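Appendix B, record 7
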Amino acid sequence: MHSYLDFEKPIAELEGKIEELRHLTGSAEINIAEEVSKLQGKIDKLLVQAYSKLTPWQKTQVARHHDRPHALEYVTALIDDFTPLAGDRQFAEDSAVIGGLGRFKGNSVVVLGHEKGSGTEGRLKHNFGMARPEGYRKAQRLMMLADRFALPVITLIDTPGAYPGVDAEARGQAEAIARSIETCVGLRVPIVSVIIGEGGSGGAMALAAANTILMQEHAIYSVISPEGCASILWRDSEKNEDAANALKLTADDLLELGVIDKIISEPIGGAHRNKQAAIATVGTTIEDALAELSGIDGSILKTRRREKFLEMGSKGLS
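Structure tokens (predicted):
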């Protein structure tokens, strides 16, 4: 059963009617199949209309949808013989960041991703995708492993931001994020990052300083959450929509600004309505991105990556 967002109420009503009709299969008076087909046509039309004109705040809601495919689902579907690697070799394991070795389309790779978890127990285990310093230090360890063995790196970004707890700050959260970005930028192997849900602040950037940054159509990527922005600038939680508009956090905005390189289209109604199709499209796009980077010398990859990020924000400056 679908979980509906506020702007999907008309769709919810029609899908409710379809469920009712399906319980009337014993009635000879109604042509169930024909009626269901008509309603499904209306639903498809409404989905196209609704999702073709989402506001930034509505896209934020879609990006956070709890049925949206998470990093582990992408890894399970796209990575063969995945071997998870745990721990930062300094303090502990952090389940908010998953990572390991595997084969993507027949080639060995290192995969990293933020994992939000599914269900109450899973979300608590993975801390809603909010990593502590040990998560970023684990990411550094695996990226350096990839560099040593000349393996491409794929990262899957989906986090509200780094964990802001006292314990995380005490163990050097800011330093861990900065070192993770530094490690990304310094690698001599291809890095492809995909924003699959929320790309929140430095917590996302720590794994996203890549050669190629891909972003799903209804994902978001910003320096702060709309709620955080509203509370700081306006001190008013009712300003979330205004904050979302001002942050330029949608894929279209970020492509125009040069922050991302390509938008990955999603199934009608968002990735959560057809996970299999969404994951397959992401896989194909990653494959194309890695093919473009294949064969480029490591020093050139490193230089291009550095220049890419130095150029960001320079548009329109004299």
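Remarks on this record: Strands lie at 79-84, 97-104, 107-114, 153-159, 191-200, 212-216, 220-222, 262-264. Residues 18 and 37 are 9 Å apart (CA to CA).
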